[in-house]
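User: Let's play a game. I give you a shape written as tokens, and you guess the letters that built it. Ready? Here's round one.
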């Protein structure tokens, strides 16, 4: 699926930008970075449909309707899936990859249940990922081994490892920690369905336990875990408040742009 001019104009409006300003820009890293930031601060990670027992669709038209027309967010399969359609429609070369996510793996080998994108720009290949509801890069990362890439006081690097392939590390609290890994085997939309269904239906899926809402800001992020609302500036927690259930809808709308 590729987006029409009308769909692209509505898409740009959804992420707070004007299509006419961007449609003739060169397909380079500065453009990709601006688009990545615009997505990250307007499209939240959220699992509300999963909690309500609504099965997710990874069909392009369904994703466009949910995230653009209805101003919702989604999980990594939805968010990065629609981003791939958007970026291809602008002319970027895009590959969809399966990824392992390490933060909740408890030292075990994590299953492949995360979707991210490799995007080819005039400046080389970059990794695009707006589908992490935790601490993560705000800008795309250059896909090159060993380069320390600094963003807002954080440092990230890619390392090649025999079993995991490309591994993204972050320097956090004095040590290098794995975030995720992937191999460069391109995937079709249908390849992600099984892992997405696991996230929706399996009893051990973390996405079935409580609300998981997150959106980035230019200096941090906002989260709603269950009924606990947090605001971070960098890694400093500046707001912590437990909401009463009647307060949740207004919080979703005012803090995350969600009307559900």
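Assistant: Ready! My guess for every position:
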């Amino acid at each position: 699926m590729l987006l029409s001019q009308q769909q692209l104009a509505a898409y740009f409006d959804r992420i707070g930008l004007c299509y006419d300003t961007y449609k003739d820009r060169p397909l380079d890293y500065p453009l990709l970075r601006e688009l990545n930031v615009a997505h990250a601060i307007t499209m939240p990670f959220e699992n509300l449909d999963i909690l309500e027992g609504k099965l997710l669709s990874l069909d392009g038209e369904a994703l466009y309707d949910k995230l653009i027309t209805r101003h919702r967010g989604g999980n990594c399969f939805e968010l990065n899936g629609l981003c791939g359609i958007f970026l291809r429609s602008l002319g970027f070369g895009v590959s969809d990859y399966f990824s392992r996510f390490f933060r909740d793996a408890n030292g075990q080998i994590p299953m492949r249940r995360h979707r991210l994108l490799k995007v080819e720009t005039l400046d080389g290949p970059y990794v695009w990922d707006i589908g992490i509801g935790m601490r993560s890069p705000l800008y795309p990362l250059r896909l090159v081994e060993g380069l320390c890439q600094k963003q807002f006081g954080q440092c990230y690097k890619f390392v090649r490892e025999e079993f995991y392939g490309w591994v993204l590390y972050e320097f956090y609290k004095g040590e290098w920690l794995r975030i995720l890994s992937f191999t460069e085997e391109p995937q079709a939309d249908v390849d992600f369905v099984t892992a997405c269904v696991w996230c929706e239906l399996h009893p051990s899926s973390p996405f079935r336990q409580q609300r998981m809402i997150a959106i980035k800001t230019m200096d941090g992020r906002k989260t709603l875990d269950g009924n606990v609302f947090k605001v971070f500036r960098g890694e400093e927690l500046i707001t912590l408040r437990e909401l009463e259930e009647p307060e949740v809808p207004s919080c979703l709308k005012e803090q995350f742009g969600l009307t559900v």
